[in-house]
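Hello again, I could really use a second opinion on something today. I've been puzzling over a protein and I'd love to understand its fold better. I'm sending you its amino acid sequence along with the backbone structure tokens. It would help a lot if you went through both lines with me. I've dropped the whole record in just underneath, so have a look.
***
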Amino acid sequence: MNAEVIIVGGGIIGCAAAYNLAKNGVSVLVLEGSENIGNGGSTRNGGGVRQSGRDPRELPLVMYSIEHIWPQLSDMLDTNVEYYQEGNLRLGSTPQHQKILTGLADSAAAHGVDVRMITGDEARRINPYLSEAVTCASWCPTDGHANPLMATMGYYKMARRLGAHFISGEKVVELRKIKGAARQVVTASGNVYEGDKIILAAGYESRFIASTVGIDVPMQQVLLETLVTEAVGPMFWQMLGTADADFYGHQTEHGSFVFGLNSGLEPYAKPGKPLSSSIAASAACRGIMHYFPDLANIKVVRTWAGWMDACADHVPVISKVEEVPGLILACGFTGHGFGISPAVGLVLSQLAMEQETAVDLSALRYDRFQ
């Protein structure tokens, strides 16, 4: 089976690119190595749609997404992606936290983001469930959150409706060049697919696949873990984080709380199938209860884990590859991909169609590592 554009990876980035291409009448084939669409980090994250705390090189993508796409995304995809733009509180309780948060806030404000430092009392006026332990916070009123599963599935379903083809359980093992350009995609089953352009958006697996045409993106696998609670009545709609990034999350439309967590042990996780640990969940719960004592008696329903494609300089590679014409990279998102995914899907389609991109990608080029 051939297509004008072949996308390797059926996460939210691949699905968003497929949607934007199919909407423009381009024939698209998406190959997903696992049996399930969105089986990687796309459906294993805290759902943050945030500008605060980001590297300045990523800011144009998230600012474009928030201004032009996220507010309309549910209508665009005919799916409720549960997008709430109710602000982001990043919490601190020590002088060191104040220093970290002030640095992040000043950096974001210098790049045009509406973010400022507030006192613990100001934070409690925004969210009365906060404990007295909170002495400072950064506040970004234009940040928010959405449902990763619904957003990924929304892009997938609408891309299919517009004519994109998806094949799951089709693990890509090799790219092949014809006359110097990337043209063919070979899978473990022995199938060979051919396209004019190949978008590689397969998370950490992108490193191995790109290496088959002599390209290396310096990234490693790092574990991300998440927990979800039972549903309770509505309490607050802000996106939450901390200065130490030990937990982050929000209350969902369903009523459950979803928290991403960081135990510090993630780089030492066993390879293979990503597994959550009792250590991480219990450590995160202690931190959550420190800031939100009213959540102490809410039951944790389940935990899960996924691999993050952590790039060497902590921002993604979104780029054509000059050495391999026809190849477009979209990997190394380092756990920051969900919030920027609407803009990334758009610019990937524009790169594939040889159009000027809506956002300047020069800081995210592959050749920055050379």
